[in-house]
Amino acid sequence: MSKQLKYAYYPGCAAKQIQKEADWSARAICRELGIELHDMPKATCCGSGNLQETDPAAALAINARIFSEAEEMGMDIVTICNTCLQTFRYAYERLQDEEIRIKINKVLRKAGVKPFENKCEPKHLTWVLVEELGADELKKHIKNPLNGMKVAPFYGCHSLRPSSVFDHRGGERPGYLDVLIEAAGGEVLNYNGKDKCCGFHYMLTKEDDFLRMSGGHSFEAKSKGAEIITSPCTLCDMALGAYQAISEKKMGKKIDLPEMSIQQLIGVSMGIPSKKLGLHKLHQNPVPAFEKNDVKTA
Is the torsion defined by CA of 248, 254, 255, 258 positive or negative? Predict the structure, then answer.
């Protein structure tokens, strides 16, 4: 690997609080892979889709300010949250318009912030692993292969749609998780829900619909033979994992499908100790599934 992989790291709010294991595991695998993640001490919440709807100009300014910090660091931004990714990519796309960028930079100057010069790009960690590190390089670090374990990828809609802001990386035929699962030695389990919404943003307004959506995807994957379900998104992790037991009660069906982030799954295949990956914080114990496939969890 000749290219030096250094990024301004933006874990997102969820990974800093209730999904800390997503952050731990991202840092753990990146250390082993030689990927440098540099914290962004001045970065704020990206505003998610809520601010985009209520005050689009403010949303652009907030994200431009975050991009500006990464530019000062001389790095692209990498995140592990699909919702942060979608928010960033939407802002990044809008800021390609020079007229819009000039207007937003006037706001940044008034706030004493260095203008965004369009010299950094927001990316997801999975993009970095596939496009910049490469599956072949990743395979060199696999010490504890998954031995054909059937893994259901759950992409999460905010890393796919709208396809216009994701270039070739989004759309209706996602492939990044599939590549990483296979590199780790797993078998990709295909099912209809792999590229659908987890329902997270329905959680407060339409809880029943949310539980049927999140539980339904997990149940379908399990019924097709999945032993693990994995996601690149902290909010999908929460929907599919933390709420699985509640979904079971609502649906009247047993799911019992361990859910984990893609970086945790890769970490296991790399032989990283489970404590560093935060496996003990998961709501469904994945150890029996790994043991069934003779995969060690140290």
Answer: positive
Tens-place pLDDT, residues 266-287 = 999 999 999 999 999 999 999 9
With contact defined as beta carbons under 8 Å apart, do 238 and 277 qualify?
A: no
CA 67/CA 69 separation, integer angstroms: 5
Topology (CATH) of 6-124: Glutathione S-transferase Yfyf (Class Pi); Chain A, domain 2 (1.20.1050)
For residue 155, how many C-alpha atoms fall within 13 Å in the half-sphere facing its CB? Answer: 27
What is the residue-averaged pLDDT of the chain? 93
Q: How far apart are CA 183 and CA 175, in angstroms?
A: 12
Per-domain boundaries in the chain: 6-124, 135-292
Q: 135-292 — its CATH code? A: 3.40.50.11810
Report which residue type is found at 208: D
pTM strictly above 0.85:
yes
